[in-house]
Design a protein that fits this description.
4 copies of one chain form a homotetramer. With 356 residues, chain A is an alpha/beta fold. In chain A, 42% of the residues lie in helices and 15% in strands. In chain A, strand 4 (141-148), helix 7 (159-171) and strand 5 (175-180) form a beta-alpha-beta unit. The longest helix of chain A has 21 residues, at 261-281. Chains A, B, C, D: GO terms for molecular function: threonine aldolase activity.
Chain lengths: 356, 356, 356, 356
């Protein structure tokens, strides 16, 4: 009773993935006898310790059920109701979370910025922040910056760029939030330490995604700025985001980082994406919209070709008339990528009228 | 790495329970290959159908990650920001959800009512509703009633009482919400159909609990009033309550109702609770605070005796100086109940000074 | 085109009063030529200075258009969304402001307390605060106390009581808000200094009412706790409470406190109230519900008598079957009080069936 | 004690204006004896009738204390928390009200549109609305359009443009809100009836500004869509926007529309603005940024010249390096305009280095 039997490979989203076997086994192992609720179980108690080791600093970790909750509650803890959050104009928090950030902040403003390769550019941010209406009572007051690593278009901020953004944030007393729905994919790309990509570069609070990369239903908020821990803990409970049987989410998260599983899973996804991206880029009439640096491929091709792919039943996400997105997962294969490349080749080289 | 090896039985809460084997198997079975996200998978598509069969009417079902989310989002969909919700003064929504209902409604008011056996009494409700400041602009306007079945103290509304409340609600154009965190325990007690205990008695929207009774992390909102379906669906997404890999929650919920598993699990919990309640009530200096009609036992006993139980390491919840709560689960046993009874017996019959 | 020609005296509310001549003249005087907007005019600039002199400490003053705005925005500045506010169960903020405090705080909870003479009793408050669920994530966290001086029933907190409440607040790190819709009436009663009745007794922020006591449309928030000034200033603008032509509100407030006008006006109202209260108390079948300490009289008399007064066209507020409220104003007279006493005498001594 | 004695004319904003004599007289006339509170007085009761006559249809009128309150509460009544509002990217609701609309709607989104002359262009609106993510749960749902008449840059929507926008709104079931902070200036420009400029063109709810054009503190919400009346009335009270002594606001509003006073006042302001605009446009190095159609003049001139004007003490608003705004009022004169023109002439023709 699932879609596994379908003929064509599915590159629609990372969310279509199953749970990785290691994580499912961890859930099963946690399923023995009673355990204290609301985070007082042994798994949850380990979380802070394991993640503090992973991040090489003392962090607080809060499992949440979705990335939207992670983002919106992180930001609500950093931002006053009359505050403003700088983000890229393609940021998921602005375009695809149903206004969760506005809801949980009590109506704060998202100020969107342009930026090449779907990343905030430090000079653009600095200009915006410097020119903000500081202290003007009828204007939203800058409180936070949110960056997405890897970005919504699969590009990856280099460390120097995060650090430059972190410096601007620190200069202006803004919190720096990282939407890490694809944290592992970004980290695998950079090959640096989790610490380097986060708090050492100025990140105060992190939406640590696991669900897209092999977990079942376990994202987390990782808090580097200790002042945010207590208020966040209340906001989570009030938001219905404090799971009673938390051991199952915690067990997933522990397994996810155990022996760097999360990096192995992400590296696999990135690798298939790179392979698929290269294959597509070599096709006539196909152009990559953004460099493939993580597990997402955005390709521009003729609308007619896209229509054909849709008609064929290929699973992908369309973004406008001539742009499509493919997402590679930890369970994707080069063979599946080859199939997609072949299908796209046929679609773009077919007759120019839509005789499907 | 869990608490299973502890010496004493754990009757602290239903939330300490593991996942029932049937539900864990359902999760494992769902873990094959890719599946569409955000509820477009085969499992989630089945939910509405199976629950409509179960409830003998067309319902919409939305999985959520916690009961708090279920309650607060259900009520936010029924109630205007300047509206009011009638509930019992011991209602979980007022006493133990961190203000989630106030947060998600935009600041609606909870109007609490007294009532014997921790249930709203229809005459008290009617008097409150009738005497409300209808149309007065500086007073909260009645919009909903929320009842908890089984109640926070383990008592169960008889059908006639729900119907009487439903009639008041209908007369006054109020929505009727049921907090069914222990829906199965209430239903097992009454032995009626799910339809009889809900929409046939006037319930418009139901927080359908499964987590406390054997699921891993899967509660749901079941909507009987079709007008609420669309607005609820937006509020859920905005609240970070729309799981991307929804198949896992849906698979749990399907298994939970398959072959009435939920009733078998609840019947077991209720049965152990009845056994434990009877055993405790027979002890000297022990009095049941409320009739044991579901899986909760509230007992009054001397503070000194409670201190002894705590010192012994018995797991229960203390509610004030002289009241304690025990909760039986699907995986509780009469043997464990016997152990508790023996411990309590020793605690209440010990010397009157606290030589522990 | 107003109600001045009506035959019977009007004791319905202080809000039915006209503007005192002194304040109207101040408005007229302010109406010359252009003046800077949003508080940068000369009148508004004087406000902080004059009120700081009046209160013998440095305060910040913000004119607002209503007492509801003053209360709700004061409290929203003191209280976290997951916070709680202690107030008397008859507090206006809970019973008569349409949920403004819940709205502006983002859904904080009002925790109501009983208390003789419609005042919070320090021991009851201390017990409530001490027994609060501090640090428990699913329970509202105490953040503020709100007292009303003079109270909603016209009683007045003695200084020692305010100080005792202030001490509890300070001990527990709660903000102390005073709803001073009838601040002048309370102050005139006590005969102490504004400083003694506020910050010296622990008050952090004050809703300073002027509209009920002779102003046209000018209440204010007076801030003693300097940490609240900046966040309040943003919240006011965002709430639509920062008047562009602020000079007119400021001119009213300056005239209101000039030469202690506000105390003279309040003393007059209090005096007529005392006279009316004594006259009513002397009648058969009439009993004062609360001591008359400010400008409000609550009297209990037979329902039939109240019906007769209503039928006669007397202007008062009915509070239940057998309780009515009279409010004396700066422009009320003893002659009007005599008229009311005579009417009530006839109403209570008439035949026992309602032959009106 | 005001700024009237200053040497230079003040064209900084319409908010610096005093109250027109007619309106001050109306306030004085209302100040006789007691009058019912919260809108039950004779003045307030007349409001609906007089405005219904003025607008040639049955309307409900609610006085409010500021334009920000008028806008935010109007929109909050039209828009779901997960809804979206289309407005021009220079709309006051987005740029200058401290996030009031986000606050009162519970976090709805403002979607800003470009448009020549600072007006929404119907084709751009239609494209945006048509391309909206209707029904997509993680995207804000279009609920309203807000236009500003006269616009923030003093341009005026022709009737046909409003009607075209109204048609789009009707087609898509969106509410159409008009921010009429300068309603009279727009209406005076068009010379049409209030009905033509509002409901006949599809406007559902109107922020009716009076404060900028001669009132003291009295804006209003005029409701054409009867479904909005009741919910708005609750929201106003909850927002602290229901004045107790409402007669004074109502008396202002009645005087404001009596014998079309509001149009005479606006015509005067528009006329001085046209005169000033023409005079400035004729100067070397000065260019009008927008056509002068109401009472605002935006002029581009060298930064150095602006610096000189500032140094001279001329009162205007700077909008960026090279743009300044002048605002003419009902009490502005052509003589004052001449003074400004002379000052600007000297500023732009002075030496090119800033020897002030």
């Amino acid at each position: 009773m699932n879609d596994a039997t379908q003929a064509l490979p599915n590159f629609r989203s990372d969310n279509v993935a199953p749970v990785s076997p290691e994580i499912l086994r961890a859930i099963e192992a946690a399923n023995r006898g009673p355990a204290a609720a609301y985070g007082d179980d042994d798994y949850s108690k380990l979380l802070n310790q394991r993640f503090s080791t992973l991040f090489e600093t003392e962090v607080a970790v809060f499992p949440v059920s979705t990335g939207t909750a992670a983002n919106a509650l992180s930001l609500a803890t950093c931002v006053r109701p009359y505050g403003a959050i700088y983000c890229h104009k393609e940021a998921h928090i602005d375009t695809a979370e149903g206004g969760a950030t506005e809801a949980f902040t009590g109506g704060a403003k998202l100020l969107t910025l342009p930026g090449r390769h779907f990343r905030i550019e430090p000079p653009i941010l600095r200009e915006a922040v410097t020119g903000a209406a500081w202290g003007v009572r009828n204007r939203a007051q800058p409180d936070a910056v949110s960056i997405t690593q890897a970005s919504e278009y699969g590009t990856v901020y280099p460390l120097a760029e995060i650090a430059a953004i972190g410096e601007i944030a620190r200069d202006k007393n803004l919190s720096l939030h990282m939407d890490g729905a694809r944290f592992a994919n970004g980290l695998a790309r950079l090959g640096c330490s989790p610490a380097d990509m986060t708090w050492r570069a100025g990140v105060d609070i992190l939406s640590f995604g696991a669900t897209k990369n092999g977990a079942m239903s376990a994202d987390a908020i990782v808090v580097f700025d200790h002042n945010l821990v207590e208020p966040l803990s209340y906001r989570l409970r009030r938001a219905g985001q404090t799971a009673s049987k938390m051991r199952y989410a915690s067990a997933q998260l522990l397994a996810y980082v155990e022996d760097r599983l999360f990096l192995r899973l992400a590296a696999k996804a990135n690798s298939v994406a790179a392979y698929l991206g290269a294959g597509l880029a070599a096709l006539p009439d196909v152009r990559l919209v953004a460099p493939v640096e993580a597990n997402l491929i955005f390709a521009k091709l003729p609308a007619l070709a896209i229509d054909r792919l849709t008609a064929n039943g290929l699973q992908f996400a369309r973004r406008g008339d001539e742009v499509i997105r493919f997402v590679a997962r930890f369970d994707s294969t080069e063979q599946e990528a080859d199939e997609v490349i072949a299908l796209v080749r046929r679609a773009v080289t077919g007759p120019t009228s839509i005789g499907l």
